[in-house]
Every structure is written in structure tokens, then in C-alpha cells.
Amino acid sequence: MKWNTKKLLFVACFGLAGCAFFSFSKGDDRNFQIAKNLDIFNAVFKELDMFYVDTIDPEKVIKYGIDAMLAQTDPYTEYYPEEDNTLKEMTSGKFGGIGSYIRYYKKKDRIAIVEPSEGSPAAKAGLQAGDIIMEVDGKDMNRVGIEPAEFSEKVSKALRGEPGTVCMIKVERPTVDGKTEMKEFKITRQTIKTFPVPYYGMVSDGVGYINMTTFAVDNSSKEVKKALIELKQQGATSLILDLRSNGGGQLGEAVDVVNLFVPKGKEIVTTKGKLKQAERAYKTQNEPVDTEIPLAVLVDGATASAAEIVSGSLQDLDRAVIVGSRTYGKGLVQVPRELPYNSSMKVTTSKYYIPSGRCIQAIDYSKRNADGSIARTPDSLTNVFHTAVGREVRDGGGIRPDVEVKAEKFPNILFYLINDDVIFDYATQYCLKHPELAPLADFTITDADYADFKKFVIDRKFTYDRQSEKILKNLKEIAEFEGYIDDASDEFKALEKKLTHNLDRDLDHFSKELKSAIEQEVVKRGYYQRGSVVQQLKDDPDVKKAIETLNDKEGYAGLLSVTADKAVANTGK
């Protein structure tokens, strides 16, 4: 929608004009401050528009002003102009498009197809991971004068559209001989749905597994219910619910997932905000599927929001053992709000509290440091709450697991191999040479494949920063400044020799981690997101620990109970 300056000024001033309908005295300082500052804001914009040496873009300037204002709240309170459908897609889990993940590809300064979704128009048409998008509907998709993030958004908008409309895409595709060829695809857009449960299956005798990636889709809980019932029919007598990297979504869906495992009528979460209407209690509304099946919930640092409601509530009700690492700590609730001219916003209206009475919000955005920065609530300032049977749990800082699994360290070399698209490019070449991948259960990167990968990396003249070398360099500078360099010169030379950059050695030393990353990237090409999950399950420390915990019936029961001495202490007797 095109806005002229006069119309925008009218809209901007409308909020001020509206204040005239409300009577307030000078003693009503808050209303006075609002009116005063709106007046100043409108005056500043008017002066800029009339007298600034260059013509300003009213939409951009006002948008910057809105974003700066919202930056003083929290990262989840956001404004969406009319042309931005992000909020609608977030709340529905649906959008019109071709159904493919894309991202900026540094080597070509273009956007690449990363993974067509299984069964999507993109996959059916034949688009492949590694294809470089050159044109969409005859328009050159180049990055002229914009940042990579904005470039990705530009191409994404070009690919999306009303279901039933046709999209012409021209791509540059790598060939097996190292060259490229141009291909063109005619794709009919469809309504693209996000699948909240990309995989479920048996991972051990009697142990079922459900991977849930989001709560943002309507009826997410029904997908979990379907998986649970089928796994029980397959012989599952215990269950792993994987919520790792699940960023959350709809609060109601979280309550319904908990409802699968706890009786009807249980209070799961309450919300409390500044306004009375933000206060609400959410109870389970349906009959459960199974209130007895032993349950382990996997979590990590990217488990957030609705996923924390599920894991935290099941912990508070002593219904599941939580396995993994501490969760993100998002205890805030947002609601969508309609704004004039088809714009909208998502605003934090309340905090949520799970059955023990705790809020797991890790950051208090109202308490900023002098420089504007914010920090997580330290453990020393968190408070003790108690589960249904009296186990100690704490608020603030997310959900702490009952069984902690130390996160594996991410090698520095792997970060750069991924960031520089080396693993992505090798996977593309691998699939060109192996058009038919081995069955998913048997797939592996062999030693011969890894030797080929090492050659690929070396031929590419790959280099990366080693943190040990950087720190040693800084240490030498400090030693020289403080006058110790002469006395320690031999020691520094010995350290430099030990820490000399050796790519071949690093590729061998971290071969296990690098092989795993390559396997994950390759299986996505042939088996989509489902394949990536299955491949990870082959060597997953969290899943192994969860299986071990579920199989130890006495240990499992002990984790969900409280010793007699603690029970006495908790009741104050």
C-alpha cells in the first residue's frame, strides 16, 4: 500500500488528536506526558519532512521510530506493516508458496535452495538443495544495495503468493563435473503447512519416540496424540517426547499436549498481566490418552515458550522426567493486536506460571543496565518452589532437567565449515555422484567418503580462525607490554609450535563430529527433515540417557519422588 506524506502525517497525528477527547489535569502526569511526547514526535517528523535537505521516505522513517520504541520493551513485542504476513503465518502455521527453505549463499552472493519440504510443490517440481535462484517470474534476484538478511526476505516474498498462482523460477544447478547448468521450473503455489511432528517411531524395545518441532500450528497436539496412539499400538510401554530446539507457539496447544498425559480438569498454566483481562487459568479439557506410561521429555537451550510450558508442567506434576540441558527461559505471553490500515502487532501482555506457581522467565526486560544491556537472572536470586510430591524446583532461568546431559562441544572448525558452506557444497556434490542414497537405516559416510571430503576441503583452500592462536597472540602482546616477553620467549616458541595451524590434523581429530554433520546434510537431500531426525537418533546422547532412565524403573520412580527427610522439610514439620 502506497502512503503519501499528508496521509501518514494525518495518521501519526490522529493519536494526538484522540487525546483531546479525554480530559486530564496537569496532575495526571502520565496522560500529559503521552500527549506532550506525541506532539513532539509529530512536530519532529513535520520539520524533517519540510526542511531536511533530502527527501525522506515517510514509511521507513516512521517504521524506524516504531521499532526503536519497541526495542525498549522485549524482543517478542513486534510491529508488522500491512505487507508483512509474518504474524498471520506464525499464528496459523500456513502460508502460500512453493514450500522450500532458502538462505543466503555467500559464494555466489545469491539465495540458495536449502531444503524443499517433503511433498511440497518445490519438491514435486524437482528443485534441489544447492540450486541457486537466479530469477523469479522474470525478475533478476540479485543483491544490489541490500544486506543478506533483507535479500533473503526479498526473495522469500517473491516466491510466496496466493495458492493456485504460478511461479516461474530459473536456477543455476551444479553438475557432477564441477560446472553449472541453467534450469527453469514452472511451479503452482499451494498452501504450505508446517508439520509439527516430522518423525515418530520406536527407538528401543518398548520405547517410543516423538519429535515435536513447534506449537505454532493449529492442531499440533492432535499430531502428537496420533503419534502416541500409534506408538502404543506398536508396543510402546514408555515414551520419549523430544522438545529440543522447539521454540514454542500457541499456549492452548501446549495445554492440550500436557492433557494427553494428565487427567481432565488439571490446572496447567495461569497468566498474569497488568490488565485484569490478561489473567486467566488454563485447565485440561479432555480425557487423557495415558496417565501412567513412563515419560521422558528431552529439552535443551533452544526449548522455549510453549515447549517450556509442556516440560515445566509435566515436571511440576511429577508426570515426566526431564532430560537434557537447561531450557531457554521464556515465560512471557504475546497476543496479536489489529492496527489501522491492515497493520498489526504482537505485544507481551502477561507472564505465565506453571502448576508449582513458578515463572521460568530468565530475563527481566524492565531492569536494564545503564548501557541498555540486560542479563539473565542469576541462580542466586531465583526462588524455590515445589512439585506436586514436594520436589524442589526453581523459578527464573528456564526449566532445569532432572537428568542433565552435558552438551557436546561444537568444534571451531565445524562452525567455519558450515558458515562457509563447505559441508553444504560437499553434500551437493555427494548427491550428484550418488543419485540413489543408501536406505536411511543403513546410511553412513564411509572412511573413503571422508577421505574424499578432506580432499574437497583442501582443494578449496579452506582456512579458518583458531581461537587458541588468537589468544596466544593476545597473550604475547600483553607479555611484551608488561616486560615479560624476553624471559618467556622459549615458552612462547614452544606453544606456537604446538598450536601451529594444521588443517589436516584438525580434520582427523574432529572426524566424528564432521562425519555426523555431513551425514545430516546429505540425508536431508533424500529423506527431508524426517531423515535428519532419524540420522541424529543413531548416535544421540540425550536419547541414550532417556532410554537408560526409562528402562531403570526403580531409578525413574526415584527421580519423581521425594525422600522422607526432604518431605518433612518441605512441609515445615
Tally of DSSP helical segments: 19
Based on Cα principal axes, name the global outline: globular
Instruction: Please mark out the parts with pLDDT under 50 across 5 or more consecutive residues, or reply none.
Output: 1-23, 567-573
Structural class: alpha+beta
Mean pLDDT: 90
Strand segment tally: 21
Radius of gyration: 28 Å
Largest sheet: 6 strands, antiparallel
Share of residues in helices: 25-40%
What is the distance, rounded to the nearest whole angstrom, between the alpha carbons of the first and last residues? Answer: 68 Å
Percent range for β-strand residues: 15-25%
Question: Can you walk through the features of this model?
Answer:
- By secondary structure, the chain is an alpha+beta fold.
- It has helices at residues 5-19, 29-51, 58-70, 86-92, 121-125, 148-159, 220-233, 251-259, 306-316, 412-419, 422-433, 447-459, 467-482, 489-498, 503-509, 511-537, 541-551, 553-559, 564-571, and strands spanning 78-80, 94-97, 100-105, 110-116, 132-136, 139-140, 166-174, 180-188, 190-193, 199-204, 207-211, 238-242, 267-273, 280-283, 295-299, 321-324, 332-338, 344-353, 384-386, 392-394, 403-404.
- Strands 3, 4, 5, 6, 7 and 8 form a six-stranded antiparallel sheet that branches. It has a six-stranded mixed sheet with strand order 10-11-12-15-16-21, sandwiched between helices. Strands 1, 13, 14, 17 and 18 form a five-stranded antiparallel sheet that branches.
- A hairpin with a 5-residue loop joins β7 (166-174) and β8.
- The model is unreliable at 1-23 and 567-573 (pLDDT under 50).
